[in-house]
Design goal:
Chain lengths: 230, 75
């Protein structure tokens, strides 16, 4: 609840403000465009039509929730605020269980399987992960958003992020060009670490969920302790 | 009981918050900080931070895609 003086100020400013233009026609136009694209996908490529709908829903959720991955990792250090980090951790818990179920259905609770056959994006981990994470992390804090954050802010009309998008595309092209070099240098020497292979599916899923819950409570504690920005 | 204006237009997170923090330190108790921003994330970011500090805070949209955030330094 804001104080009386802020309420007064708000009322005073509200009188000075001109009436805003309605944004409904623009919204309807875009909705029709989205539906036309959906219809084209339905007629030509069913799989893409599903991706289109999932992508649109993702966009709506991210925009409405102000779900910013850059802020989730920046705010704990900068201002001691872990509310978005906690949301990311909850997302990871849901993902662990959800992907666990999908992968469990496809291979069952055995420790003898081929990693190639597992649904999902399981890749090698090593020094290249660390280097990439540092580069991407530094970049997203300077640019004011990760990939999804940049896209939702362009959608909102924040022009500055278009510059970020151009940088993002250039970066992706450069990395695609030199991926073989990195593969020869580092990536080919590393291994896939897939915990269910060592301890079985159910234990891996439960273990990872418990670990994430622990991190969640630590983040919560950190949030309460760091009440004042230093 | 002054009202202090702070221009945060075209600044991305976390610059508006850092600017507000610096400005609030120079202000007296009872002053109101008026921040102008066009970055939607700053609204949640700044207001959540201000409330956590124990300040009163609120915002209104003054033009399309431009907002004013009010923070009262209560202590």
């Amino acid at each position: 609840m804001a104080s009386n003086r802020i309420e007064e100020l708000k009322k005073r400013r509200q009188r000075e403000i001109k009436k805003k233009k309605s944004q409904v026609p623009v919204g309807v136009t875009f909705l029709i465009f989205a539906l036309i694209i959906y219809a084209i996908f339905l007629a030509t490529d069913f799989k893409s039509s599903m991706f289109w709908i999932i992508g649109l829903l993702f966009g709506i959720v991210l925009q409405r929730a102000r779900f910013c991955f850059a802020a989730s990792f920046r705010d704990p250090i900068l201002v001691g605020n872990t509310s978005i980090l906690k949301a990311v951790i909850i997302g990871l818990i849901i993902m662990t269980i959800g992907f666990g179920i999908i992968q469990f259905i496809s291979i069952g609770d055995s420790q003898d399987f081929d990693i190639e056959n597992i649904p999902g994006y399981i890749s090698k981990v090593g020094m290249h992960t660390v280097i990439g994470a540092i580069l991407f992390g530094t970049g997203m804090v300077i640019a004011g958003g990760c990939v999804s954050g940049t896209l939702i802010r362009i959608g909102e009309g924040f022009i500055l992020q278009i510059v970020v998008l151009v940088g993002l595309i250039i970066g992706s092209l450069i990395s695609a060009k030199y991926i073989q070099f990195w593969d020869k240098c580092i990536i080919s020497k590393t291994h896939v670490v897939y915990i269910p292979r060592y301890i079985g599916f159910s234990k891996a899923i439960i273990g990872q969920s418990i670990l994430l819950l622990l991190i969640y409570f630590l983040a919560d504690l950190y949030h309460k302790r760091n009440n004042i920005m230093k | 009981m002054a009202e202090v204006k702070l221009d945060c237009m075209y600044e991305t997170c976390p610059i508006p918050l850092l600017k507000a923090h610096k400005k609030l330190q120079t202000m007296k108790v009872g002053d109101i900080l008026i921040m102008e921003t066009n970055h939607t994330c700053s609204i949640t970011n700044v207001i959540e931070w201000a409330k956590k500090q124990g300040y009163d805070a609120d915002y209104i949209e003054i033009r399309e895609g431009e907002w004013e955030i009010y923070i009262e330094k209560v202590k």
